[in-house]
Design goal:
RNA binding, Ribosomal Protein S8, Chain: A, domain 1, 9 strands, GMP Synthetase, Chain A, domain 3, alpha+beta
Length: 268
Amino acid sequence: METFEAQTIDEAIAAASAAFKADRDQLDIQVLEQPRHGFLGFGRRNAKIQAKLKRPVQPQKPIEKKPAAKSRPAKKTVVVKTAKPTDKKQNVKPAADDSNEPDALEMERRHQANVQKMNQAAQALCGYLKDVLAALGVTAKPKIVKLRTHELVIDLQANNSGRVIGFHGRRINALEQLGTAFLSYHDVDDPGLILDTSNYRQKRQQSLEKLAARCVTEVIATGQAVFLDPMPARERKYLHHVLEDNPRVKTYSHGRDPYRSVVVAPKN
């Protein structure tokens, strides 16, 4: 089967009809990918089909009737009864059917296919982030630092990293959410994207640890809960992890995204 690609399914079928010089009814068509219009300038995808000519139906040959054979008188048969064997049946357990379980080679093939899909989407994402930052007046060079099946780390190398980070990290966090949506539109399942610049993420973790220590001191001193500013899910999760073993305080999240925040409260 040959593959055809166009903006719509009908256009792809028309291209297949022109290539085979046949009508649509004479083609065996299989739709591989539905077209996408995209979102915010990315995610656009053409329709893709496979087509081949249908095999012509060959007329069946008439079946010649053979003359019936002359019937002969039936012979009498003597039935001799034999004793059934008295051997005990052995309990034989059927072998486990492993046909549905993929073998090691198949699992490796699937893994390599997923890695290749993430690599293609990551290369496209680097170009998209570069264009977005250029539209904001920031010259940056995205570099892939880590790439796995469901994990991607990109370092946005720029002369002015402060403009990439934005006020309290709002710009880089927004770009990270946009990049996660970009990967999802490129058929990457459950993508985990981290955008970094000038080692900002590690510095931010150190700031969160200091913030957690100040919150514990304030909660112990006042006996009241402390409500922090809204922050991304990754930072909320890190604060919960830092304070989970503290015997004096407890943490929980409050509100809805994008205004969801962490609350540090007395444990008793």
